[in-house]
Amino acid sequence: MCGIVGLFLKNPALQPQLGALTAQMLKTMTERGPDSAGFAIYGGGAHGRTKMTLRGVTEALRPDFEKSVLSLSDSATFSYRDDHLVVSCPDDAVSAIRELVAGYGSDVRIVSSGDSIELYKGVGLPEDVAARFQLAEMSGTHAIGHTRMATESAVTTAGAHPFSTGPDQCLVHNGSLSNHNTLRRQLVRDGLSFETENDSEVAAGYLSWRLSRGERLDEALTASLSDLDGFYTFVVGTRDGFAVLRDPVACKPAVMAETDDYVAFASEYRAFAGLPGIESATVFEPEPQRVYHWEHAA
Amino acid sequence: MSATLSNHQAIDLRESTIRELNAVLQSEDVTGSWLVSHPEGRHSIAVGLTAPIDIIIDGQAGYYAGGMNQHANLVIKGNAGPGVAENMMSGSVRIEGNASMAAGATAHGGLLVIEGDAGARCGISMKGVNIVVRGSVGHMSAFMAQSGNLVVCGDAGDALGDSLYEARIFVRGTVKSLGADCEEKDMSAEDLQILRGLLEEAGITEYSAEHFRCYGSARRLYNFHVDNAAAY
Question: What span is annotated as the signal peptide, if there is one (chain A) (predicted)?
């Protein structure tokens, strides 16, 4: 199963409510995915600075870690939410901080990096995961979330969605891929590395690999129709927006709602029930094999 | 729970659970007209009904609304989720908006009317139901349809009528592609009469039966071949 949600705000006045609306949508999708949940939220980017979300910087590690980062970049800032940490630093300090993090071993990981993405995920009921990270208090331009019912790999934080495999990119997936092992081996040969045995991480890596070769998101998604075998409804987040793609059979549900204020995506309509003005929204199902894409003007 | 609103008995799904709603509507002495408010996409609204009652669902329904219906007449004022009127036996379900995938799946009887579009696999494995769609239907509609009629006033998606048995399909617009063993048939006088009757029953007056094409099974698959009868 799994539930996915996405909310892209057209009206900036709604930005302070983005987290609260996303949290409510995630909670409604609990029945589709009660074992873990996660979300990527975009916003608050500052020119010339990068946000990195890290997992595994324990309280014991914090003083030493912060000191080491500050020695590389004295303007770095730290924002903790439960077991996740967002480090904001100047773009030119990113590679040095990456090297520093690598020195902490596999327990400390950079789970996302980019101008505006922050990415949080964990094991537990979606409502509890959202509360742990205070999602309801977050603001931003757009958000993507996932509630997981694991099928292809273990119930772990690393196996929860979203997966981020490129700058400001993330992917959530409802379905299961059948050729992910073959594809993973090909991508590893091309220099990508994967954190899990999860099929969805391969889809994320595949799209990042195509984007890194200069393709546009819609081109990369169109190519995935011939390269990915299996069932999928994908929602892909980028710095400026999000995209939706369903496989040709389209047995994984998807519904969208659009008003003058937002575009919303969910596995089921009931996730929309609490959105403002939903009664008068245009509600439709995305067609299979067609790339849908919404973007803020850069 | 059931405050009377004009001539309808009302149930508000913000106050009652789905189980409470269905228990009331399934009870042996249920009669009259019912208004279900704030459905908000909840699943399994008004399923397993057996009495000839009238129900209005005032908004969006989730999965399987009106599933297994017998005798009741259901109107959904908004969109319906996957599997609406699944396995319906008799009565009617009318959706004023769009229906998601697998509308009328495996239904044996009754009338399903979709005022908007239907998603993929509309009428999959239908076994005698009549389905009238004012808009278009998605891919693999009427897959393995065994009996009954599917009327599409708009267009049909890919692989229409794949592995069809005895059901009839009428399409007014274009068919993106036909599924295995589905072919266009000459519209007989009997077909035309059935189609006219269904359009009338569904309340569709703007389209004339003469503008539809009829599709059915070519009966060339393994299960139709007499030489395979020895296998049984």
Answer: none
Q: Which residues of A are catalytic?
A: 2
* ipTM, interface predicted TM-score of the complex: 0.88
Angle at A141 between CA A169 and CA A87, to 5 degrees: 60
Beta strands in chain A (DSSP E): 3-9, 36-42, 49-55, 77-81, 84-90, 109-114, 117-123, 142-148, 170-177, 230-238, 241-246, 255-258, 262-266, 282-284, 292-295
Structure token digits, residue A225 = 């129709």
Helices (H), A44-173: 62-72, 94-102, 126-132
Residues of chain A with CATH 3.30.70.980: 47-114
- Main-chain dihedrals φ then ψ at residue A219, nearest 5 degrees: -65, -45
Q: Name the class of domain A3-45+124-295.
A: alpha beta
Cα–Cα distance for residue pair B40/B57, rounded to 1 Å: 10
Are A261 and A280 in contact by the 8 Å Cβ rule? The answer is no
Q: What is the pTM of this model?
A: 0.92
- Give the pLDDT of residue A161: 95
CATH code for the part of the protein at A47-114? 3.30.70.980
Whether A250 sits inside 8 A of B101 (CB atoms) is: yes
Output the DSSP codes for A192-206: ---SSS-HHHHHHHH
Q: pLDDT class for A165, splitting at 50, 70, 90?
A: very high
Contacts of A256 in chain B (CB under 8 A): none
Among positive and negative, which fits the CA dihedral A206, A208, A211, A212? negative
Residue B46, both tokens:
């008004």
pLDDT tens readout for residues A175-229: 999 999 999 999 999 999 998 889 999 999 999 999 999 999 999 999 999 999 9
B40/A285 CB distance under 8 A: no
Per-domain residue ranges of chain B: 1-116, 125-232
Which one, of A271, A262, A265, lies nearest residue A284 by Cα?
A: A265
Are B52 and B91 within 8 A, CB to CB?
A: yes
Q: What is the pLDDT of residues B102-126, one digit of tens each?
A: 999 999 999 999 999 999 999 999 9
The dihedral through the CA atoms of A210, A216, A221, A222 has a sign that is: negative
Task: Please tell me whether residue B216 adopts helix, strand or coil conformation.
Answer: strand
**Is the pLDDT confidence value at B1 over 80?**
no
Would you state the pLDDT for residue B3? 44
For the record, the structure tokens of B116 come out as 């908007």
* Contact by Cβ (8 Å): B93, B107: no
Interchain proximity B98–A283, CB inside 8 Å: yes
What residues of chain B lie within 8 A of the CB of A271, using their CB?
41
Q: What is the DSSP string of B63-82?
A: TTTTTT--S-EEEESS-B-T
Chain A positions touching B97 (Cβ under 8 A) are 283
Spatial distance between the Cα atoms of B156 and A218, rounded to a whole number of angstroms: 26
